Amino acid sequence: MRRGTSRDIRTANRYEVLRQIIAQSPTSRQELAAATGLSLATVATLVGELLDLRMITEVGFEDSAGGRPRGLVAVNASGGALIGVDIAETYVHVELFDLALNVLARADEDVRPGESLPEQVVGHVAAAVGSVVAQAGIEGARVLGVGVSVPGQVDRATGVSEYAPNWNWHDVPLLDLLTEHIAYPLYLDNPLRASAVAELWFGAVRGRGDAVVVNLGTGVGAGLVLGGALHRGVSNSAGEWGHTTIVLDGRLCRCGKNGCVEAYVGASGIMLTLRELCPDSTLLHPEDQTATIDALAQALRENDPVALKVVRETVKYLGAGIADLVNLFNPEVVVLSSWVASALGEPLVAEVREGVARHALPRPMAATEIVLSPIPTDPVCLGAATFALEGALQSVGQRPAPQRARQHGKNRTVTP
Amino acid sequence: MRRGTSRDIRTANRYEVLRQIIAQSPTSRQELAAATGLSLATVATLVGELLDLRMITEVGFEDSAGGRPRGLVAVNASGGALIGVDIAETYVHVELFDLALNVLARADEDVRPGESLPEQVVGHVAAAVGSVVAQAGIEGARVLGVGVSVPGQVDRATGVSEYAPNWNWHDVPLLDLLTEHIAYPLYLDNPLRASAVAELWFGAVRGRGDAVVVNLGTGVGAGLVLGGALHRGVSNSAGEWGHTTIVLDGRLCRCGKNGCVEAYVGASGIMLTLRELCPDSTLLHPEDQTATIDALAQALRENDPVALKVVRETVKYLGAGIADLVNLFNPEVVVLSSWVASALGEPLVAEVREGVARHALPRPMAATEIVLSPIPTDPVCLGAATFALEGALQSVGQRPAPQRARQHGKNRTVTP
Ligand SMILES: [Zn+2]
Ligand SMILES: [Zn+2]
After folding, report:
1. Band of residue A313 on the pLDDT scale cut at 50, 70, 90
2. Which of A317, A390, B366, B404 is the most exposed place for a label (fewest CB within 10 A)?
3. Which residue from B153, B244, B332 is facing A324, i.e. has the nearest CB?
4. Are the CB atoms for A62 and A108 separated by under 8 Å?
């Protein structure tokens, strides 16, 4: 039983009711009570608050069997805009959403290998955020907040990127840097949590209790949904599956340890495997992960033997690593997400299913489905936007206080 | 947000209130409301039910600041007895508890290496259960239930041991076999879950949200407390850390896979390491895990170099394996439990702390404490007894229906 202040509980309940309305509009207070487990009286109060905030609207009545007609509410899509930012090692994706979480505008920027300074990354984010607001043609006042996802370990309360392995960032006050360019409330988290929430709201985890969302990109990790909610861990750093050991004393990982899962199944791990198996392969684009993975994906679709060999060698590790998650969490579903999974697609998933079955225990394996993320847009942008929505609901009644603690006197270190 | 029927929620709330009363008697309804997050009205109703069941009693009043005196309740220790059974690979421990979960009687039986038939194990359990009831001199009518923990994967609903690797049991209807000897209601689960609940109620996890209880015995595994509650997974088989891969293509494990954590850090894994490092060691008692681990523990206390070498070699794997749990779950505490941990004691824990720090990421590592289980008796018996208590509360109002579904026509297979 999680405990919290009555204010925390009220915010959580308000958020849960809005989530249900966004997931299924129109809906009645009775349906919301059934879906959330809250009393009808509590739901009625929370619906009243959301109506006052103009986040939802009354949309008519439905007949109830033998009773009075029931009032229906729906999300007010134009009641506000949310921005989700997915900062990855090779790109920045930004999407602008209406309150129903439909994408209204999108902007992408490439992050090139040399660009490891926070100011460079912040520049890309600022440009793309400016672009989506301009494209959507909305007034800034309607932007309720910007959720920002950055790889590695983050401190949500202070807005600091504590450790981003790809750029060797340590304690970078990312939200403070972004505040110099972006006037909207900002909320920081990482892609593991963003993609897990996206699957929970709109994807393969909808209506499920226990799930693992495996992110396969430059970095790899696992977003955890346990008991129907995001599992963050005591210091918001749960899910670091990429840095669990799969081969003791194995390949050197960029985190400094040996034999991590990421060293074999992250984009550069796959490139290294390709180089080892076939040093002269035309699939290999040195220094360009995206081009290499795209070439591999194309060759895989054409049943190219080298591509198949690379994928099977990768799945030796990936299958064992996902089996570890199945044995530990006993989830209903494992979702493969992020750009490497999405590029390699169903041929990868088919290999992964076999690879996991070779390593997982029969009982948890029988209970687990392994699927590709069904979300057509960038799940990390979507999840980051939900963090902005959560933040906006938390701030109700405490405006115009800033949405996060500001950093004072904390030094930032960037080791190039 | 976990959902369930209103009956489930009521049972869970009744159990939570009783747990709080057992943890701290005497207490007031106001304190219980604060501790559980339930409303005072709900707590008052549940306290009334527990009073009717004679599980708790009124014990007087305390002054409240400026208000009416508050009624105090306490657990009625003599309101019933609970039995906890810990079936392990090398022993059966049985403890009989009063309702305050004080141990009133205890019986142990050795399970010898050849004894792998369910009937043999059931014989030990029946003898020990008979012994504790006789020792305690209580009438059978007061025994509310018997919680039985058996290693491996179990189906709680049907009372079947689906897979017990040490004896190669497959689909053994253990509770049906026990019912032929034991008349009390029986509840089946496994030691990972039993020890985790014991730590949550009375041990190192009390008052904490996220914790991992690492069981080090013949088998190894991880009991998971997430969000303040036991994480079972979708088919009650979460926590199989012993069969996660730490050395791809490494040592053969008894589960049939290679390179599992258990193959290195389970009791027979440690024996194998001793044999590899020092084949003629006098510490080695072939075919006797208990004697070998005891000899190792004694030698470790005397700073014997061979013992130290074996422990350090074991911790190479154990440290990496526990670091995986720290990186994945980001827990507040990791508790080392079960007989191997308890025999090797603090010298092991000191080595483990260093070993984990070499492999875990700094942020989750900084948030985690690593401790030995502080529970002086067998935590698995204690946890199993709480499962019997939970079952007894569930059955309120539906007596005399049996506590579990009976097995009909399901074949049991024992491959020797
Ligand atoms: Zn690593
Ligand atoms: Zn194994």
Report:
1. very high
2. B366
3. B244
4. no
In 10 A of CB A345, how many CB atoms? Answer: 14
Q: Of B271, B292, B286, B360, whose CA–CA distance to B321 is shortest?
A: B360
Report pTM.
Answer: 0.91
Reply yes or no on whether the pLDDT at A242 is more than 80. yes
Who contacts B261 (Cβ-Cβ below 8 Å, separation ≥6)?
A: B220, B241, B242, B243, B244, B245, B246, B317, B318, B321
Cα(B336) to ligand 2 centroid in Å equals: 20
AA letter at A179: T
Q: Which residues of A224-247 are buried (b: 16+ CB within 10 A; e: fewer)?
A: bbbbebbbbbbbbbbbbbbbbbbb
Instruction: Give me the sign of the Cα torsion angle A355, A361, A366, A368.
Output: negative
Token digits of residue B134: 């006789």
Give the H or E element holding residue B346.
helix B339-359
Between chains, do A162 and B246 touch, taking CB under 8 Å as contact? no
Q: Is the pLDDT of residue A3 over 70?
A: no
Query: How far is residue A191's CA from residue A147's CA, in Å, rounded to a whole number?
Result: 11
Cα–Cα dist A249/B359, whole Å: 11
Which domains, ranges and CATH numbers included, belong to chain A?
A: 6-75 (1.10.10.10), 79-193+379-414 (3.30.420.40), 207-372 (3.30.420.40)
Give which of A6, A48, A53 is closest to A29, Cα–Cα.
A48
User: Which of A 33-62 lie inside 8 A of B, CB atoms?
Assistant: 36-37
Contact: A361, B255; criterion CB under 8 Å: yes
Report the C-alpha gap between A278 and A284 in whole angstroms: 9
Beta strands in B141-230 (DSSP E): 143-149, 153-155, 160-164, 169-172, 186-189, 211-216, 220-226, 229-230
Give the tokens for residue B189: 């689960």
Q: Render the burial of A270-297: b for 16+ CB within 10 Å, e for the rest.
A: bbebbeeebeebebbbeeebbebbbbbb
Region A168-180: mean pLDDT is 96
Ligand having the closest approach to the CA of A152: 1
Predicted confidence (pLDDT) at residue B397 exceeds the cutoff of 80: no
Pure H helices in A78-211? 118-136, 174-179, 191-202
Q: Which residues contact B326 (CB under 8 A, 6 or more apart)?
A: B212, B334, B356, B360, B361, B364, B365, B368
Q: How far apart are CA A194 and CA B389, in angstroms?
A: 39
Q: How many CA atoms lie within 13 A of B45 on its CB side?
A: 8
Report the distance separating Cα B400 and Cα B416, nearest Å. 38
pLDDT digits (tens, 9 = 90+) for A140-158: 779 999 999 999 999 999 9
Asked if B405 contacts B189 with a C-beta cutoff of 8 angstroms, the reply is no
Which tokens is A177 given? 């840097």
Contact criterion met (CB < 8 Å) for A240 and B332: no
Distance B93 CA to ligand 2 centre (A): 25
Q: Which amino acid is at A317?
A: Y
**Cα torsion at A58, A62, A65, A70 (round to 10°)?**
10
Handedness of CA A361, A362, A367, A373 (dihedral sign): positive
With residue A226 as reference, give the H or E element that holds it: strand A220-226
**Omega into B26 within 30° of 0, i.e. cis?**
yes
What's the whole-number mean pLDDT along residues A128-137?
Answer: 95
With residue B11 as reference, give the H or E element that holds it: helix B6-23
Sheet holding A333-337, edge to edge: A229-230, A220-226, A211-216, A333-337, A369-372
Residue B59 burial class via C-beta count within 10 angstroms: exposed 0-12, middle 13-18, buried 19 and up: middle
Chain B residues inside the 8 Å CB shell of A332: 234
In a mutational test of the B interface, the residue from A190, A363, A365, A370 whose CB has the highest number of chain B CBs within 10 Å is: A363
Average pLDDT, chain B: 91
Nearest CA-CA partner of B266 in B278, B277, B251: B251
